[in-house]
Amino acid sequence: MSSADAAAPARWQPPGYWPFVVPALVVVVGVIVFPWAFTLWMSLHEWKVGAAPAFVGLSNYARLPTDPRFLDAVWQTLVYTALSVVLPLILGTLAACVFHAKFPLRGFLRGVFILPMMATPVAIALVWTMMFHPQLGVLNYLLSLVGIPPQLWVFHPATVIPSLVLVETWQWTPLVMLIVLGGLAALPTEPYESAQIDGASIWQMFRHITLPLVAPFLFVAAMIRMIDAVKSFDIIFAITQGGPGTASETINIYLYSVAFAYYDVGYGSAIAVVFFLLIIALAAALLVVRKRTQGAVA
């Protein structure tokens, strides 16, 4: 072999595993990449069902800041998400600490506690709709037993978001409990033994030992709950359809109304793109908080 042939670059050859990668790439492109590319394309067009699409550039996006209904939906989404993350985190952590202790029937009670996670959203919505009924609902009956006047719950703009958060908290607190419970089971016992020797109280051990050690698990639970809550649709739609009026209309509900009730596909696609960017921004903010918290703890 000549020196020129030896100096020539090796000819590229596809790796041997390439035939196994192609099916996965086809699925990713067909299920993820193409739908999002098509959504971006639609968001740049004025397209209502029954009419031909017309290119309008960024007009649909420019319309969003001047749409009061969209701005209200953004605010209601943020409030709903914040409450649906914070309350399950607090209650789930408390429940995990309770179920981490040893007591009779602990396994059975754990199973009962996670039952709400197993129910379908529509079934949950139907049950809670009956419980929220101002005249016939069991919640107002229970309030009457302690002398509290009946509430309108999901039938009043001021209480509809907290009422929906109550359903979300009831269903997903067990998920947070399971995640934190796994973290508690992996904690070392030496720090607690040392703290007991130093005379630390239960609250001091929880604040200075348990919380810092389970913080990574709490951030995982917060991330899962945030992504799930911000895109919540089935519970809200089945109970209120965004009402009364638009008091519980989140971005997801408004997007559905624009695209499938008003048949404005172009504007609905622009809302979908902005909604996706909002989810990314919230997830990134949570990751930044996690990084700074870990740095402070370190």
TrEMBL record:
Stretches that traverse the bilayer: 20-41, 78-101, 107-131, 170-188, 209-227, 265-289
Boundaries of every ABC transmembrane type-1 domain copy: 74-288
Main location: membrane
InterPro entries reported in the protein's UniProt record: MetI-like (IPR000515), MetI-like_sf (IPR035906), Sugar_ABC_transporter (IPR052730)
PROSITE patterns from the UniProt entry: ABC_TM1
Keywords: Membrane, Transmembrane, Transmembrane helix, Transport
Keyword Transmembrane: yes
Compartments (UniProt record): Cell membrane
Signal peptide: none
Membrane topology: Multi-pass membrane protein
Domain of life: Bacteria
Similarity remark: Belongs to the binding-protein-dependent transport system permease family.
Protein name: ABC transporter permease
